[in-house]
Amino acid sequence: MKIATFLTAAFLTIGGMCSVAQGGTSTTTKSTQSKNLRLLKKTSNNNYKTRPNAPSRQLIACDYSEGIISITFALPEGECNGYLTNLETGATHTINFDSTDLIVDIETELMSEFYIEFMTASGNTYAGSTVEE
User: Fold this and answer.
1) Does some domain include residue 3?
2) What count of other Cβ atoms lies within 10 Å of the Cβ of residue 119?
3) CATH code at 95?
């Protein structure tokens, strides 16, 4: 059984002020929207027994503010392809970026709730949402 690796969300400093979310909630005002997401590595449901894997050193932080999604990689994983779904309208957009830059900014429309999922060239799939489960 593989152990799911939980990724931690990081806080980014914007304009010298730190936007802090407590307990997984997001900070939202009329003029600015800022959300910190926790991206999780998706695992397959293989039922055969294998040796446990060592924990991954990969940490991916995702932050959304003013229509820009910033994704920060601790280790590069190559070209990434995926999609971004606006949960309010149901609109889905494909996203493509290179994680060798370590910090990737994706410009989007202003959204209060969305789901992001992408697969890396290394074969790992990561997903996250602004909606708490």
Assistant:
1) no
2) 16
3) 2.60.40.3080
Q: What per-residue string of b and e applies to 92-117 under the rule 16 or more CB within 10 Å gives b?
A: eeebeeebeeeebebebeebeebbbb
- pTM for the whole thing? 0.65
Question: Residue 44 has which token pair?
Answer: 């397959």
Segment 1-23, tens digit of pLDDT: 333 333 333 323 222 323 333 33
Domain count, the chain: 1
Neighbour-count burial for 26-65, b at 16+ CB within 10 Å, e otherwise: beeeeeebbbbbebbbeeeeeeeeeeeeeeeebbbbbbbb
User: Is 99 inside a domain boundary?
Assistant: yes
Which residue carries 């939980």 as its tokens? Answer: 6
Residue 42 lies in a domain: yes
Structural domain includes residue 102: yes
Four-point Cα dihedral 111, 130, 103, 28, nearest 10: 60
